[in-house]
């Protein structure tokens, strides 16, 4: 490939370039300070000759098809001394990350994510004292996170997520006061260090999908600017710290698929400040207990999604869910909920999904559910509901999934269910319906028993 490169025209982002850089004469441009070749189709290895550009401060080779290892010579010559921005993300680079990258002591931003790098994270990264952004996610890195990363006092964003990292989270990270931290989808183990509670400017903490164990440190309640907290899919246990009620800016809380026990903190559920900010909450797949009607008696004005499924909640369903105006998805399956379905549940919301299955609900299905005209998914199966299917359900023309199986429903099946033109799953089995399937529904239903 030949590039005709004017001395002042060094930004060639998205020019449709292809081929390699093997024949390009970098030595002809000794004063070049910026190279931007992002978003092209360049391939082959990264030429080590780039290291001869002693005045280079900005290098962007991202979103191409470069492969092979980062050449050692590339990071061992004059380019230590000047380079400030290095972007190599979204390529097919492989091999280990050269420890010599730690010699680029003027580096402010390092993006090496979305490649296929293997091996450990070099401890020499701890020398990059000016670094503000370090992204190495979506690789195949292994080993432990070096404690030397805690030396990067200027670091604002750190992401080692989507790798194969193991061991513990270094306590030294607790000294990085302005950090956003993403470590999800690894194999990290041991408890969450108390020192993470020192990250008082943290807005986003994502530790999900690891093997973290032990209780959640109460020190996380110090993170008063936190907006996103993802701890799901670990082996965390114990109770949810009541100090979480201090997180008044929290909008997204995901603690599902752990081993949490005990009661939900009152500060989260009953009139606390967090209640007003919460947008999304996942607590499913734990062993949490408590009275659902008491624990969620308040109104969550910004709540859009909540999943409390597969815990040990008891009590009845509160009608206050119908006063959460932005609620789109409500899931309370697999608990010990009893009583009747409140007629006004979801009324006044934008509800699209309601899952109350596998509980101990009794009574008739409220005809008022026919007013949930935005609903797409309605799961009421495996309860003790009786009576008929309300004919008002015919108004639910956006319905895609309906499961009323394993109840004591009887009477006839309303022909108005034939209005469900978007329906692709319908399960009415294991009930006591008194007639054959209406012709309008025959194309959808295959039920093993109607008695």
UniProtKB/TrEMBL annotation:
In what residue span(s) does the Disease resistance R13L4/SHOC-2-like LRR domain sit?
A: 142-338
Catalytic class of the enzyme: transferase
Would you tell me the protein name for this molecule? non-specific serine/threonine protein kinase
| Membrane topology value | Single-pass type I membrane protein
Q: What is its main location?
A: membrane
**Gene Ontology cellular-component terms listed:** plasma membrane
Q: Does the keyword Transmembrane helix apply?
A: yes
Keywords assigned: ATP-binding, Cell membrane, Glycoprotein, Leucine-rich repeat, Membrane, Nucleotide-binding, Phosphoprotein, Receptor, Repeat, Signal, Transferase, Transmembrane, Transmembrane helix
Q: Which domain of life is it from?
A: Eukaryota
Cross-referenced SUPFAM superfamilies: L domain-like (SSF52058)
The record's GO molecular-function terms, alphabetically, read: ATP binding; protein serine/threonine kinase activity
* Record localization: Cell membrane
One Gene Ontology term from the biological process aspect of the record: plant organ development
Reaction it catalyzes: L-seryl-[protein] + ATP = O-phospho-L-seryl-[protein] + ADP + H(+); L-threonyl-[protein] + ATP = O-phospho-L-threonyl-[protein] + ADP + H(+)
What EC number(s) does this enzyme carry? Answer: 2.7.11.1
């Amino acid at each position: 490939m030949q590039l005709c490169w004017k001395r002042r025209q060094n930004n060639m982002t998205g020019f449709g370039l292809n081929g390699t850089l093997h024949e390009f004469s970098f030595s002809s441009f000794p004063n070049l300070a910026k190279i931007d070749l992002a978003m092209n189709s360049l391939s082959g290895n990264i030429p080590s000759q780039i290291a001869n550009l002693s005045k280079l401060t900005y290098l962007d080779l991202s979103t191409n098809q470069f492969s092979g290892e980062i050449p050692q010579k590339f990071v061992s010559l004059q380019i230590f001394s000047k380079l400030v921005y290095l972007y190599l993300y979204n390529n097919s680079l492989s091999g280990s990350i050269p420890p010599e990258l730690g010699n680029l002591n003027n580096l402010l931003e390092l993006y090496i994510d979305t490649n296929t790098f293997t091996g450990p994270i070099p401890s020499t990264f701890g020398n990059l004292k000016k670094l503000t952004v370090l992204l190495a996610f979506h690789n195949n890195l292994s080993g432990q996170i070096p404690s030397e990363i805690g030396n990067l006092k200027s670091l604002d964003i750190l992401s080692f997520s989507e790798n194969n990292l193991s061991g513990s989270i270094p306590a030294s990270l607790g000294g990085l006061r302005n950090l956003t931290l993403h470590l999800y989808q690894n194999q990290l183990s041991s408890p969450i260090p108390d020192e993470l509670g020192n990250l008082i400017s943290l807005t986003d903490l994502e530790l999900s999908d690891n093997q973290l164990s032990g209780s959640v440190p109460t020190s996380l309640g110090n993170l008063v600017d936190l907006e996103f907290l993802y701890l799901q899919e670990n082996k965390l246990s114990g109770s949810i710290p009541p100090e979480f009620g201090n997180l008044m800016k929290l909008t997204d809380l995901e603690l599902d698929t752990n081993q949490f026990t005990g009661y939900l903190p009152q500060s989260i559920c009953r009139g606390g400040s967090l209640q007003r900010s919460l947008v999304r909450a996942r607590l499913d797949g734990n062993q949490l207990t408590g009275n659902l009607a008491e624990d969620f008696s308040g109104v969550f004005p910004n709540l859009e999604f909540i999943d409390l499924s597969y815990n040990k909640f008891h009590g009845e369903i509160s009608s206050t869910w119908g006063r959460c105006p932005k609620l789109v998805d409500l899931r309370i399956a697999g608990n010990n909920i009893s009583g009747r379905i409140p007629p006004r549940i979801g009324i006044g919301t934008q509800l699209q999904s309601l899952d109350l299955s596998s509980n101990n609900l009794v009574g008739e299905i409220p005809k008022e559910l026919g007013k949930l005209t935005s609903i797409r998914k309605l799961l009421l199966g495996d309860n003790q509901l009786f009576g008929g299917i309300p004919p008002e359900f015919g108004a639910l023309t956006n319905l895609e999934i309906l499961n009323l199986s394993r109840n004591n429903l009887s009477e006839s099946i309303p022909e108005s269910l034939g209005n469900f033109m978007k329906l692709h799953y319908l399960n009415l089995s294991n009930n006591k319906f008194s007639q054959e399937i209406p012709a309008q529904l025959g194309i959808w239903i295959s039920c093993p028993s109607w008695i």
